[in-house]
Amino acid sequence: MAAAAARSLSGPGRRALPLVVIVGATGTGKSTLALQLGLRLGGEIIGADSMQVYKGLDITTNKISPQEQTLCRHHMISFVDPLVSNYTVVDFRNTAVGVIEDIFARDKIPIIVGGTNYYIESLLWKVLVDSKENTSPSQRAGDHKEELEQLDSQVLHCRLTQVDPEMAAKLHPHDKRKVARSLQVFEETGITHSELLHRQQEEEGGGPLGGPLKYPNSCILWLYADQAALDERLEKRVDDMLAAGLLEEMRDFHRRYNQEKVAENSQDYQHGIFQSIGFKEFHEYLITEGTCPQETSAQLLEKGIQAMKLVTKRYARKQNKWVRNRFLRRPGPSVPPVYGLEVSDLSQWDETVLKPALQIVESFIQGQMPSADPVKMECDINEDKRSYHMCEVCNRIIIGDKQWTAHIKSKSHLHHLKKSRKQDSSFSAAENLVGFTETQEDSGGTEILRQNKN
C-alpha cells in the first residue's frame, strides 16, 4: 500500500518523493531497516560505505548477503577492484548522484544507508570540490594526491602555506591527506581550495560547512543505542563473523592480494580496502601463520580478535560523534530533520524502530509533517572548527575551538602546565639568588674602595 501511495504521488506536477537517509554507528541495524523500508515502500538501496564499495572481504566489511540483495535492489556495493587504492569520496559522489536521479526517474524512493558519514554528507550537501580528473580510478595513470602524501608532512604543509595560507592555517601539519588534497585542488584547478569553498558557502542555502542542500525533501533516520548494549552487540558480531568464516576469507584475500605487497614491504594499510577494520588487525597472524609455533599463532590470533573488537567499538563512537557534530549540530539554513530511533533493545524492533520509521517516511511521501519530533541539538554558530591554536606549553598545534577548549582542560596539558610553572618558579628563584649574590659582591667591592680612600 505504501509503495502504491509513493508511486501515485510521484511524476510530473506531483509532490516529490523523499530521499531517505539512514545513519548511525556500526551494529545498530541500519542495513536491516533499509531492507525493510525498501521492501515496504518500493525503494532501492544505495550503500554509503567506503569499504563495501570494493570487491572482496564480504564478511570482514559486513556486507548484506547476496540473498538479501535479491529481495531489494542494492547499488554501490562490490564494484571497485580491491587493488584500486585511489578511489575517493568524489568518485563515490559522482556515481551515486546519477544512481539517485535514476531511481527518482523511475518513481522509486532512494534509501541511502551506510557507516561512512562523509560519503552520506557528500550526497546531501554541496561540500566537495572537483578536480580536473574526471576519469575513473582504474583509468588514471596515477593519483597525484598519493604522490603528494609521500612527501614529508612539514614540506607538504609548507608548500600549501605558500599557495593557500588560509587553508594551511586550518589544517594540522600532520594531516597529510587533507593537506595533500588541498594542494591537489590548487594544482589541478588553478584556484585555491579555500576560495572554492568560500564560493560554495556563499551560494543560496550555503552555510559554514559547505554549500546548499541538494535534495530539499530529505529525511534522516538516526539509529542509536545505549553504549554498553552496543559494545556487547559489537563483540558478539565479531564472534559471529568468525563463525561465518572470517579467517578463511582473510587468508584467501591475503594470499591473493596482500602477500606480495607485504613481501615487497609496500603495504601500509592506509589506502583502499586494506584499511578495513579487521583485516589489518590480523596482519601479524596472517604473515606468520604456518611459520611459527602453534602456541604463538594462537596468541596472535587472539590478539587480532581482541584488536578487531576494540577498534570496532572505537569506530562506533567516532561515527556517533560525527552524526552529532555534522548532522545534528550543523549550522546553516539547509539542514534536513533528523529523527532518532533507539535500537538498544532489539526484541522491541518492530514497535520502536520499524513502525515509527515507516510512519515518518510515509508522512514525507504524503507531503505532511511526521507526528514524531526531530532531534534537536544546540549549535554554536560562532564556533570555528578550523581555528589554529599553538600550545606553547605542550608544543602542540590544535585545530578547532572545541578541540582547543578540550585540550587546555586535559590532564596532559595541566600536567605540562604544572611542570612548566615549577620550572619557571625554580628559574626565578635561581635568578633572584644570582641577583642577591651580585648585590653582595657589589656592596663588598664598594666597601673596599671606601676603605682604600680612607
Question: What does this protein look like?
Answer:
The chain has 454 residues and is an alpha/beta fold. The protein is built from 17 helices and 8 strands. The chain has helices at residues 2-8, 30-41, 66-71, 89-105, 117-124, 144-149, 153-163, 165-170, 176-189, 193-201, 227-243, 246-263, 283-288, 294-328, 349-365, 401-409, 411-453; strands at residues 19-24, 43-47, 74-75, 109-113, 218-224, 338-342, 388-391, 396-399. The strands form 2 sheets. The chain has a 6-stranded parallel β-sheet with strand order 3-2-4-1-5-6, with helices on both faces. Strands 7-8 form a two-stranded antiparallel sheet. Strand 7 (388-391) and strand 8 form a beta hairpin. Helix 2 (30-41) packs across helix 15 and helix 7 runs parallel beside helix 9. The longest helix is centred in the C-terminal third of the chain and has 43 residues, at 411-453. The radius of gyration is 28 Å and the shape is globular. The N and C termini lie far apart (119 Å). The relative contact order is 0.12. Mean pLDDT is 86; it is low at 7-14 and 445-454. It is found in: Cytoplasm; Mitochondrion. It comes from Pelusios castaneus. This is tRNA dimethylallyltransferase.
